[in-house]
Design brief:
The protein is mostly beta strands and 365 residues long. It is 8% helix and 39% strand.
Length: 365
């Protein structure tokens, strides 16, 4: 299918949807039919829904998540359910922060949660996922579990005066020593069996946003070590034979990131037929420092929140527009011909409660 005229000729319109009842940073969400679901992260165990087909719609409280509240969990819809995997948090008020190796399923039809009979094969905090169909999920990236747990236990158990040095020792290491997941993991939801189906190119990542465009998909931004954003955008294509039939994932040459020092925690999806990416955070100057051997590359640098919106045109990410304010670490869901942005935070980590629907203003020419 031929795509319409260049999107720069069709500027965006922003519609305000109902505000979230509370903050939701590093949470997750998905759409089922005309209802959006969102929560977790800084929302704790709270889980909300917004029925766009209901007149005078507003966010409603659903059944709370039954496990310890996860941040940066993988949330993905498949079939008639929404799945939540991994993430990190405290298993009890007295516990140290650690990664979770559990999976849960939310059933919208009955507003209830079920814990899955599975244990994650690797740490999936900050990972990305897509549903191949109603019974198969693919996972990309994720923080190395043992390192993550050991660091947080050491940090949170130490006296306050020692924590800066513990953090510095941890951060002053090159990318390869963090061991983030580069395997592509497949999960069969019928048998709850995991299988590695290959590896992704370049470094493992966390907090990359996955954008699917038919058989193609993009892993947009993310970190390759704490504080250092990916310098490329990965593009993959799903094999038409299916993962179980030798189709696998074919990786294409990566795209250039349209922002110096990259971005993580961005929003992404399709507006009309065009793939777009918006917002995110980065540390200006971090890659220059890393190239000079300063592996704690973001030490002392100020984190910056971004407002730029980019659109993919002929393998180039071109500036399209800007968000009303800088924004990152939220949830993006495709609805109709637009993209809905939920939760997240803005400059200096201030939570965003507004819900925005980005669409194209169709040309009348």
């Amino acid at each position: 299918m031929t795509k319409p005229a260049r999107p720069q000729d069709q500027p965006l319109i922003v519609t305000q949807l109902p505000d979230l009842p509370g903050q939701c940073v590093d949470g997750g969400g998905a759409r089922m039919a005309q209802t959006i679901y969102a929560g977790l992260g800084s929302a704790g165990q709270r889980w909300y829904c917004l029925d766009l087909s209901s007149p005078g719609h507003a966010w409603q409280r659903c059944a709370d998540f039954p496990g310890p509240a996860p941040s940066c969990a993988v949330v993905v819809a498949a079939g008639e359910a929404i799945y939540v995997f991994g993430g990190c948090g405290k298993s009890s008020p007295a516990a140290c922060t650690a990664q979770f190796d559990t999976g849960y399923r939310y059933l919208p039809a009955s507003d209830r949660w079920e814990q899955l009979r599975t244990v994650l094969p690797v740490g999936l905090t900050g990972a990305s996922a897509l549903a191949l169909d109603a019974s198969t999920l693919l996972f990309f990236g994720g923080y190395q579990r043992e390192q993550f747990d050991h660091f947080h236990h050491a940090l949170e158990s130490a006296p306050q005066a020692q924590r800066a040095e513990i953090t510095a020792r941890y951060m002053r290491r090159p990318i390869a020593q963090f061991g983030w997941n580069t395997d592509v993991w497949s999960l069969n939801l019928l048998t709850m069996t995991w299988c590695s189906v290959g590896t992704q190119p370049h470094h493992g990542h966390c907090k990359a946003t996955l954008l699917r465009d038919g058989l193609d998909f993009y892993l947009l931004g993310g970190e390759v070590k704490p504080g250092l954003r990916a310098s490329t955008i990965k593009q993959g294509r799903l094999g038409v034979g299916g993962i179980g039939n030798g189709g696998g994932v074919q990786w294409h040459a990566p795209h250039a990131v349209p922002v110096n020092d990259g971005f993580a925690g961005c929003f992404a999806g399709r507006i009309g037929q065009w793939p777009v990416v918006a917002g995110g955070t980065h540390f200006p100057g971090s890659w220059q420092r890393y190239a000079q051997g300063e592996y704690f590359a973001h030490e002392g640098l100020r984190k910056r929140w971004l407002a730029n919106i980019y659109v993919l045109v002929e393998r180039q990410w071109c500036h399209l527009d800007s968000l009303p304010q800088p924004r990152a670490n939220g949830i993006s869901v495709e609805v109709g011909d637009g993209l809905v942005l939920i939760g997240g935070d803005s400059d200096e980590g201030r939570p965003c409660l507004d819900t925005l629907w980005l669409r194209q203003r169709l040309s009348t020419r």
